Amino acid sequence: MPIELTIESLCQEARRFAEIESQHAEPSLYGATDGKAVGTYLEHKFRAFLTAGYAFTAGNSASGIDFPVLGVDMKATSIRQPQSSCPFKSARQKIFGLGYALIVFVYNKTDDAQNHTGTLVIEHTIFVEKERTADYQMTRGLRQVLDGDGNEDDVVAFMMDKMLPVEDIEAHAIAQELLGGADMQQGYLTISNALQWRLQYSRIIAEAGAVEGIVRVR
């Protein structure tokens, strides 16, 4: 009988999967340069790996994340440019976090010209708790404004200076929440504005294991 997947077992299996996959020579990856296609290959393969021993609800377009019951999304990205896209829901995600945790596989792809295979050496596997998924500079700056006795106008001005994609009324509503003590943790992602958020992972790679909420799985 498959057992119910938990965040703990997800991380354990992510470590095991990364070790196995890093040794696997895959013909279909040889010469592949489309980072999105390679990432999709890795994500699908990890889900199939989990299915062998665990029961879990897979994500769909409605949930928007890979493991909706656990509140975890999976990302696979190249070490050469560790970033990926994610759905834009609200500008608040830059301040209060994405609303879910991340399991991130960072790979270095190598090709074997003699055997015509590609291998994804997974150099980092990192779990980011949802409380740490806000934008680093946005949360750092807002915390400094609040610590410096900033008022509503100061908070709004900072958000506007940082080009937060939000209307004036919403900016003032967020400022009032922050001044009223709304929970805003220091985030560690870099989130670039676009039609979809662009998540960049260099900081979590550097901080994994050294900051609470950013766990170096492998």
Quick recap:
The chain is of the alpha/beta class and 218 residues long.
Question: How would you describe the overall organization of this protein?
Answer:
It is a single chain. This protein has two domains: 3-81 and 99-132 and 196-216, PvuII Endonuclease, Chain A (3-Layer(aba) Sandwich), CATH 3.40.210; 136-179, no CATH class. It is built from seven helices and nine strands; from the N terminus they run E-H-H-E-E-E-H-E-E-H-H-H-E-E-H-E. The protein has helices spanning 7-21, 35-51, 93-96, 136-147, 152-161, 168-179, 202-207, and strands at 3-4, 54-55, 72-78, 83-86, 101-112, 117-128, 190-192, 197-200, 214-216. The longest helix has 17 residues, at 35-51. The mean pLDDT is 94.
Describe this protein with a few key phrases:
single chain; 218 residues; alpha/beta; PvuII Endonuclease, Chain A; 2 domains; four-stranded mixed β-sheet; three-stranded antiparallel β-sheet; 35% helix; elongated
Cα(first) to Cα(last) distance is: 28 Å
How would you classify the helix and strand content by structural class?
alpha/beta
Tell me the series of helices and strands, N- to C-terminal: EHHEEEHEEHHHEEHE
What kind of sheet is the major sheet?
A: 4 strands, mixed
Spans where pLDDT lies below 50 across 5 or more residues? none
Number of strands: 9
Q: What general form does the structure show?
A: elongated
The number of helical elements comes to 7
Spatially, the strands of the biggest sheet line up as 3-5-6-9
Q: How many individual domains? A: 2
